[in-house]
Amino acid sequence: MEKNKSRRSFLKNISLATFSALSLAGCNMKEIDEFLQRNFKIMSKKEKDEIVRNLELKYKEKYNKEFHVSDAPAMDGVSFGYALDLSRCIGCRRCVYACVEENNQSREPQIQWIQVLQMEKERGVDFAHSDVHYNPEKVPEEGHFYVPVQCQQCENPPCVKVCPAKATWKEPDGIVVVDYNWCIGCRYCMAACPYGARHFNWGKPEIPEKEINTEMHYLGNRPRMKGVVEKCTFCIQRTREGRYPACVEICPVGARKFGNILDPESEIRYILENKRVLVLKQELNTQPKFYYFFGV
Amino acid sequence: MNFIRFIKGSIRIILHGSKTYYAWLIFLLVLIIWGGTGYANQLSEGLIKTHMRDSVSWAFYIGNFTFLVGVAAAAVMLVIPAYIYNWKPIKEIVIFGEMLAVCAVIMCILFIIVDIGGPLRFWHMMPLVGTMNFPSSMLSWDFFVLITYFLINLTVATHLLYSIFYKKEYKRKLVLTLVFISIPMAVGIHTVTAFLYNAMPARPFWNSALLAPRFLASAFCSGPAILLILFQILRKVTKFEIKDEAIWRIAELMVYAMFIYLYFTVSELFKEFYSGTEHILYWKYLLFGIGDNHEIVAYSWSSISMGCIAFVLFLIPKTRKNLVTLNIGAVLIYASVYVEKGIALIIPGFTPDVLGQIYVYTPSFTEIRTATMIFSLGFLLFTFVVKIAIAIIFEGYDIDVIRSKKLRTIESSL
Question: Which member of B129, B137, B201 has the closest CB to residue A163?
Fold first, then answer.
């Protein structure tokens, strides 16, 4: 702690000298503080609490609403798993939009963490012949099935391995998270992800003021900035409070199942033990904790 | 103090020149400003000004970076044949090669900086101040090898010029050691850059063991092409002496490199097309397009045809030993590798994307302007250092000249 502090003040001193030009250009102390903020992963609990409190104030000032920004750590004895019943999914994309609203994804330019692929039953799971832009009057379409893809929360995540700044990591409960304040935006993780699960803020993200979700987690759905990468976090702001992810809740056909794989009584354990499950691109040894199965 | 005088002398050199020199500088400055305003726009609006999107998340910038790593690497690797065949002006070849390498590395770093979303956060990936993901991330390796390579070449080139400037004997042991370190480092920077792409099983197009060897082979085509032309210009306008035989020898070595590159590529193509797995899609997109998406085909075939013509021109002794056809070939191979690294290497890695979707990418106007800015900056820098080197090595611009000039100005002011 002591050491960290001294390093922090050292950095601050450097900054005051070097970035005085910046402050002239209209940066205030708060922005300099944010600029010098360290990697969230190596912060102490106290530092984390201070950071999220400051964020709450900042958002309140900006949106004129009360916000709750959590920094809740992973619960002991919990490892999250997800299962999706391909025989039930009708491709309605309600999960896509529920996710956008819950997780404060940018509406313009559009960012969506869930992509639903329409596939032909004749071909089976075949990405090369799949279509994300399907747009019929009514779903499901005859002869087709649907594969929603989001972050697979790999046990062996290639995105974490390649990140040059340790701005993304796997939490003890298995959720792969990004520190948006630490991400330099090099997009190496996007190149490494075999599931297209990572999305970049190519422009300044826009969220309508009245649609913003005020229940947030630092590593989850707090508003992102231009030039950083974001991804599905299994709704970390919900699931660490014992709630279901938004996509599980909204699914009208009950195709989405979620729970603690370490709990022998959980539904997810039942599915893993009794159904034939598959993971996407098994040959890449990413070991996803997002399973697909045929329930009926 | 001595070093400051050396720097002052160098600045004086670059400030004075012929009319053509000034015209060239103004031309570059105009390009820098034109490109710079494009980049400024990207800085304020975000990378949305480029045509990159989630599907194709790396493109022209990172392609240029890769190309320039090749140029930086090859410039120094040319020292090996110069040493083995005992070409006369070996010191000069070392100096100009290393200066080209220094400029190319600076351009590489600039291309990375314009490509990242938060350039001010670059320190997050640096050791000590940030949390560098070393040794796991290949980008951290790239950072180390590029910085080391840059420093070594900068030291050698500066030290040699400094010694000539002060008419001192250069530190032979130090220079030789550094040059011998920088040669394997040159192989290293390009290999690490290839591994950057290579180590991602999510992208089958790059996930081939031949990628790094192909990188090296193509670099040995494009890098010497620049020096080939530079040496001829130097020979015309200065006292720089390089025999025709040496130039032909460089060209001959380039033919070997081209042949090896061609051979590697054919091996790759055979494996992909004969096995005909799903991975063939990326090559199909590159060479023929998929469905109605043919936008990239023009790039790939122009690169292939320019490369093949250059190969033939360099292969036939008659055209190789004719300086006109030789220079045409040098320009063609340079352009061919540029298009190959800039577009044909990166884009098919992302198209179709990991979920099989096709997003058609071609560079946006902003990307072209930003790249123009960086290339003009690089050329400007290279012009300056070449001018300094020419003045010091060939025109006898040394400390005595400055001293006598100073005396003269003092006398005249008296």
Answer: B137
